Amino acid sequence: MKQTASKILSLFLACSVLISTTSFASSAHFCCNKLVSFSATGKAKPCDQKLQNPKDTSRKCSLEQKDCCSTDTYANIGKDDLMVHSFDLDFGTLVFLNAFIFYHIDRFEGLQENVIPFKDYNPPWIEQDLLVLHETFLI
Asked: What is the superkingdom listed in this entry's lineage (predicted)?
């Protein structure tokens, strides 16, 4: 479950980065405040046929008027500065990073061995059986 959620999240983040960095433009052609054509890849085709709508005779807009039709273009410019990062390292920072890395590498180097601290410990010699000495027997 955790791996599936991680894969879904990584796919979502990759798609969001792709969408935010991609530039695209779309065009829409309106006649009488109605969408006539829409194009996501190029220019929208202008209307060349008359709109026949007998019910709507009270409109002030008609195809014969020149200001009635309009073409709108929507452009989304992607971000190009996602990977621009620069940083300067001076000599003191490099010495500190070198010491920090080698300290932690040497610190955890021998942890793969199974260290048993009491492996060579000899228990004390029992001269007498304590259960018999205190007369405690299990029945």
From this structure: Bacteria
